[in-house]
Amino acid sequence: MRFSPLVNEPLVVAGELGYDGPTSLDRRVTQPYHETVAIRGESVRVEREGEPVRSFGLNRAPELRGLLSGFTALLAGDPAVLERNFKVAASGSDEVWTLELTPSDARARRRLQQIVVNGRADVPQCFTMLTANGGASVLLLGPTADRELPKPTTLDALKHLCSAE
Amino acid sequence: MKRTPAALALLTLWIAALGLLGWFVQRQLVIGADLRLFLPNPVTAEQRLLLEEIGEGPASRVLVIALDGAEPPALADASRALVDALRENPNFRVITNGEVALDAVPDELLPYRFLLSPTLDTQPLDEKYLHSELLARGRDLASPAGAFLEEWLPRDPTLELLKLLQRWQPMQEPHREFDVWFDRSGKRALLLAVTQAPAFDPDRQRIALDELEHALTQVAGKQHVTMTVSGAGKFSVLMEARTRGQAQAFGTAATVGMILLLLVAYRSFGSIVLSSLPLASAGLAGMAAVSAIFGTVHGITLAFGFTLIGVAQDYPLHLLSHRRPDHEPVDIARSLWPTLATGVASTCIAYLTFLFSGVTGLAQLACFTVASLAVAGATTRFGLPVLMARAGRDFGDSRFLDRLWDRIAALPHLRWTALALAAVAIGVVVLAPQRFWENDLSRLTPVPRDLLMTDQQLRSELGTADVRYLLVVSAADSEQALSTLEAIEPSLQALVKNGAIGGYDDAARYVPSAGTQQRRQQRLPDPVALRETLQRAQAGTPFRAGIFEPFVQDVEHARALPPLTVEKLRASPLGASIDMLLTQRSSGVTALVTLSAVNDVAALQDFARKSGDSVRLLDIKDASEELVAAQRTRILWTLLAAAVLLVGVIAIALRNPSRVLRVLAPMALTTVLVLAVLRASGESLNLFHLIALILAAGLGLDYALFFEHASADRAEQRRTLHAVLVCSLSTLMVFALLGLSDVPVLRAIGVTVTLGVIFNFVFALLLTRPSPERAK
Hints:
The structure holds two protein chains of two kinds. Chain A is an alpha+beta fold. Chain A has five helices and eleven strands, in the order E-E-E-E-E-E-H-H-E-E-H-E-E-E-H-H. In chain A, helix 1 runs antiparallel to helix 2. The two termini of chain B are 36 Å apart. The longest helix of chain B has 35 residues, at 232-266. By secondary structure, chain B is an alpha+beta fold. In chain B, strands 9, 10, 11, 12 and 13 form a five-stranded antiparallel β-sheet that branches. A four-stranded antiparallel β-sheet of chain B has the order 3-6-2-7, sandwiched between helices. Chains A and B meet through strand 5, strand 6 and helix 1 of A and helix 3, helix 6, helix 7 and strand 4 of B.
């Protein structure tokens, strides 16, 4: 789900994520159209129906990089990896928790301001990525994605949804 | 060395004069590396293009760069950092790794995107098109690339700029990883640089390469990144260093050997030091004369010049060998002078013909050698003897030389044998199967095979322009040139499609003709209409009303723009690529179409024939070989004139046909024999052989003159034998060493002079030495 000053309504797409180690991530959109974004190492491939395949460097997509490193760190359960790239602030309980990851590199911060991860027990539920220009994209995972979206769909409403019990 | 006040004063004065000359030369002399100084005036249109307009073609300035040794992501980062570090460097016109940066285009050029991109030719900005574009942008925005495009979308919802930048990429798009060029295996990051300096300027190429090295150490930091640089410029630096290195190594060895030889021959260190004065004066005087008259001198002229004044080194040796205890050196010099002067004068007059050869490099060579030899002769006659003390011994008394001379005297005179030998030699020269002349100058400094293989491989990965074939479009002005380029574009595309070429690049890919730009301009809707269309097109897309106002303004701006000219683009940071492809000259405009992966030359020729008079296919290799051949024809005619003059001068000096014949015969026979040996060993001749032959002829002339001079007196004959022995042995040593080199240029000079010295010495003894009857 992306919030952007350019659009009236946030852009909502649905699909699945395939994580296969720290250098490989697939983001498959199935609704409302088909699109596959695949990270392999440092390069990103975008395949969308009816368009030629495009590819670009992971550097161009700070959100993807944030997602990938966040995933990697969380799944590896290795705070050292996280702290290498981010300033980490944790809050909440073991049951319902929030991690605020701020890129430690000033240059990276120009593009990706912060990642907020909400989780429940050992499962992350929401990834909220805030970009520097006031845009944001929110990724709802697992059961959270199946829940009804709040109306109107605002960033605050989603925040609430993510941190809810 | 005399210790009289007069001698010391002269020595001081002499050294001071040398110092002054040295200072003048150092201040004045510019050593040029522009090969054009050494080529004749162009005759055909192709030659003129090659010489006056394009040098060796844009492709010769291209360096391909490969980075490896680290993980691909680190290599990609190093590649980016390298481009950032060198983008503003004055030694490079272009350095790129293929990355398309939206901010590379200066702000004032942005509205031009509608006029430069071909989209409008087939696609009006109508509702249907805008709607589908906006839908796609919505998806882009929702994709992970969204944040990157977000900023840009209000101004450019059709991503016209991106299309334009992609269009400006090489046609045969290299493989990419992480947005930058990599080889197909994804292990080496590739970059492409275009140097400011042409390939044949090794000095400036070296500076550029050093900058590249320096930038890499800066950007690589702790990472271990190794860089491979390849291209004509790199090769010229490499081969120049190798040639220079070997010439220096052999030169040092030869100098040491020469000093030892002279020590053995004269047993006096002082004499050797003194005898180096005329040669030093000669070299400095030659350089001073050239720099005073020409200003710039070609490096090759100097190299050839110093080879040719090797003759001058013999002058003081004759004086040294003829010294004796009972005569003042000044008197000896006076008695030797007629012979020496004949040698100097005839050689100088012969070289004077070079002045009129029409080739600047040769005129410089003439100026250099004439000044050098005249100064060497004059100082040997008037300066050196004043400084010299009387000798302790007379080489005329040498027992060894006496016995040697008797043996030589017992040898038969070989007049008929010599004639037969000459006939056989001419036969060999004519009948040897290989080509007589080597036109391909690159064979003289061949690049090692493995480097060429790497070069080929990197070039094919990057699809860089072919170094040999080029299309040339001549036009009255830029607009006409661009229109012609646009007119041949479909045919070029057909050539790409059927595989004759892999791709092409020309100025019209960057700047369309004003006509085309105006036609596109007329297709841009006015702001009111565009706003309305946008509003309708936005229905069903997620975008907010009115956010594309910056786009509307850009379009409005573009409608009123004067067409982008080559001049305007050239002044912008994007100008580097067009600079090489379109050049303005007083007589008009020359546009180049560079080609990559040329597979079918016949198809190209066919295309050029059908495209009218203004489009020509230039084969750089052919044209430059023709030039070399034309240059050689000139040189040969010049040499013929020189030979005629030489015979004339000798005839006037000696006044007796049989004496003239005896002096000239060894030289002539030697030249034919050396040619025969070279041909029989499978060599094709080149300019360097010719220069070496001229040197050998000059040496032979001196040997013969001195032998001829010595006819009357037995002691004088032994002194002459001593002098010629020392002269020929020292020359032989220098050039035989050079002949061992594995650089073909050095070997050509070394082997030719070595053979020349041996033959000249032997024939001078056999043909010129006085007949026994006369000696009695």
